[in-house]
Amino acid sequence: MELLNWLPGRSRDPYWDAFVNRPLADPANSITEAIRRAPEGRIFPVRSELPEPDRLLQDLDQLVTFLGGSAIGVARTDPAFLLPGDDADGEPGPGELTEDHPLTIVCAVHAEHHPRKAKGMAGQHVLHESASVNFSVAAYIRELGYRGTVRPVDAAAAARAAGLEPGRAEYVGDAVLTDLPLPLGRPGS
User: Fold this and answer.
1) What contacts 178, CB < 8 A, 6 or more positions away?
2) Which of 27, 8, 22 is nearest to 119 (CA)?
3) Which one, of 97, 103, 127, lies nearest residue 115 by Cα?
4) How far apart are CA 139 and CA 42, in angstroms?
5) What beta strand segments (E) does the chain contain?
6) How far apart are CA 178 and CA 144, in angstroms?
7) Helices (H) and strands (E) in the chain — how many of each?
C-alpha cells in the first residue's frame, strides 16, 4: 500500500508537492523564455516543392506528434486573437502580420499538470513542451522557404478557429503564423 503513496497525484511527499506547486524562485531556471526569446532564423531563399495541402497538413501533424504535441489545427489569421509580444516596439502590428501570415497553426500538447494550476516545475513543463513544438514547427516551415513566426495568441479563440477543442489534459500556448499553403481545420477533416 505504501507504494501507491509514491504515485504522482497521490503522494503526500512534500518534495513532490513542491515540484508540482511551488513557483520557480528564479525565472532563469525556465527554458520557456529562452526559447521564446531565441532569434528567428531566416527563410530559405528557394521554396521547396510541396505535396498537396491535405498531405502537407498530415505531414505537419506527424511532425508535431514526433516533437511531443498531441494535436494540430489551422485557422485563418485573425487580428482579434493576436496578443502583443514581449517586445512590441520592434514587431509588426496585427494588420501587417495578418497580411504576411494569412494562416495560424495551433499545436496542443498533453498537459498532465496545467500551468495555471500547478505553478511548479511540473506545471511549467507543459509550457516548455509547447514552446519547443512551436519553435521547431516554425523553423521547419522557414526551411521549406515560407514564413513561420511564433506569436502569443488568445489560445482559446485560436484553438476554436483551428477546429481544436483542448480538454482538461491538453494545453495550447503560442501559435505559428505562416504563409505555407495549408487547408483549414484539422488533418483528415
Assistant:
1) 101, 103, 104, 105, 138, 141, 146, 147, 148, 149
2) 22
3) 127
4) 9
5) 69-76, 103-110, 148-151, 170-172, 175-178
6) 11
7) 6, 5
One digit per residue, the tens of pLDDT, for the chain of length 189 reads: 445 455 555 557 787 777 777 887 787 777 888 888 889 999 999 999 999 999 999 999 999 999 999 999 999 999 999 887 655 556 777 778 888 999 999 999 998 877 888 788 777 888 889 999 999 999 999 999 999 999 999 999 999 999 998 666 889 989 999 999 999 999 987
Asked if 134 contacts 107 with a C-beta cutoff of 8 angstroms, the reply is yes
Dihedral of the alpha carbons of 31, 130, 69, 142, in degrees to the nearest 10: -90
Check: CB of residue 77 under 8 Å from CB of residue 101.
Answer: yes
Pull the grid cell for residue 88: 512590441
Assigned C-alpha cell, 142: 522557414
